[in-house]
Amino acid sequence: MEYSNGFPRKRDVSLQELSKRLAEFAEVRGWDQYHSPRNLLLALVGEVGEVSEIFQWKGEVAKGLPNWSSDDKEHLEEELSDVLLYLVRLADVCGLDLGQAALTKIVKNAQKYPVTSTDHTTTSTCN
């Protein structure tokens, strides 16, 4: 198995695993005192802003980012990872099961936006 930074590459990672690793990471560094819901939310918003900056002047971007350099893709990967990690940590600190909440939200959205015979486009699950 190939490793990168001590972690196996190209495998599915659960939100629970991320949550556990983040909690351990914060605990051994004494950062728990700073990880209040408010502080984590503000950090999350800052990271979303960094993702926005990457896209700010690119106009419409094709799926798969075919015209992006590997450096640009790596930068986006890092910033999206920051967003995910803060989101997972925020949910954990708030005592929420983010994975279950997301699945429940998809079911609610399916009920709210049922498929009809006239639907020709995909609707968002993010409402």
Automatic annotation (TrEMBL):
<keyword id="KW-0479">Metal-binding</keyword>
<protein>
    <recommendedName>
        <fullName>dCTP pyrophosphatase 1</fullName>
        <ecNumber>3.6.1.12</ecNumber>
    </recommendedName>
</protein>
<keyword id="KW-0460">Magnesium</keyword>
<dbReference type="GO" id="GO:0042262">
    <property type="term" value="P:DNA protection"/>
</dbReference>
<comment type="subunit">
    <text>Homotetramer.</text>
</comment>
<comment type="function">
    <text>Hydrolyzes deoxynucleoside triphosphates (dNTPs) to the corresponding nucleoside monophosphates. Has a strong preference for dCTP and its analogs including 5-iodo-dCTP and 5-methyl-dCTP for which it may even have a higher efficiency. May protect DNA or RNA against the incorporation of these genotoxic nucleotide analogs through their catabolism.</text>
</comment>
<dbReference type="GO" id="GO:0000287">
    <property type="term" value="F:magnesium ion binding"/>
</dbReference>
<keyword id="KW-0378">Hydrolase</keyword>
<keyword id="KW-0963">Cytoplasm</keyword>
<dbReference type="GO" id="GO:0005829">
    <property type="term" value="C:cytosol"/>
</dbReference>
<dbReference type="InterPro" id="IPR025984">
    <property type="entry name" value="DCTPP"/>
</dbReference>
<dbReference type="GO" id="GO:0006253">
    <property type="term" value="P:dCTP catabolic process"/>
</dbReference>
<dbReference type="GO" id="GO:0047840">
    <property type="term" value="F:dCTP diphosphatase activity"/>
</dbReference>
<dbReference type="Pfam" id="PF12643">
    <property type="entry name" value="MazG-like"/>
</dbReference>
